[in-house]
Amino acid sequence: YPHEQVWKKNIPVPKEIFENVVIDETLGPGDILYMPRGFVHEASCSNDSPSFHATVALMTHDWSQASVYTTILSEKLLSIPSHRLSIDRRVGSEHDSGNRQHIVEDQLRKVTEAAQAVSFADVSRYLLKKYKMH
Q1: Burial track 17-31 (b if 16+ CB lie within 10 A, e otherwise)
Q2: 17: Cα within 13 Å, side-chain hemisphere
Q3: How many Cα atoms sit within 13 Å of 39 on the Cβ side?
Q4: How far apart, in whole angstroms, are the C-alpha atoms of residue 6 and residue 40?
Q5: What sequence ranges are listed for the domain JmjC (predicted)?
Q6: What is the pLDDT along the chain (134 residues), one digit of tens a residue?
Q7: Does the model's pTM come out above 0.90?
Q8: What's the pLDDT score for residue 1?
Q9: Per-residue model confidence (pLDDT) at position 56
Q10: 91 contacts 100 by C-beta, under 8 angstroms
Q11: Are the beta carbons of 23 and 16 closer than 8 angstroms?
């Protein structure tokens, strides 16, 4: 789901989202309206009175260590031509006699090397870019 979030990564809000109003409420002083994560919304003030509209987001999957580190590692691996090749489709199938085990183990060693090459600077660059989107 992190790759489907509107606005992020320049994914536009589909026009049909705005065609059917789901909630049309007037809130009074001190009222709070909860909307689930990802709920596209617009707020406006009905008169000249001041209004405060705040969106509070909690840390979600795309900020987890697993997501951050796998994204950085994936980018590193995709920059290496040999890691863009398909895995032999016989690996793990009923036609795999285990002869390819050494090939997979060699590839996994290279993945480990790439993971060990991820630096603090890589993580900082990635997060700085991510912070700019928020």
Answers
A1: eeeeeeeeeeeeeee
A2: 10
A3: 14
A4: 9
A5: 12-63
A6: 455 555 566 667 778 877 888 888 888 888 888 888 778 888 888 777 777 778 777 667 778 899 999 999 999 999 999 899 998 888 888 877 777 888 889 999 999 999 999 999 999 999 999 888 76
A7: no
A8: 46
A9: 76
A10: yes
A11: no
**DSSP secondary structure string, 77-125?**
HHTSGGGGSPPPTTTTSTT--STTHHHHHHHHHHHHHHHHT--HHHHHH
Joined tokens for residue 91: 């690996």
Look at residue 7 in the predicted model and tell me its pLDDT.
55
- Alpha carbons within 13 A on the beta-carbon side of 51: 13
**Location of structure tokens 């290279």:** 110
Q: CA-to-CA distance for 98 and 79, rounded, in angstroms? A: 29
State the CB neighbour count (10 A cutoff) for residue 6.
13
Rg (CA), the chain: 23
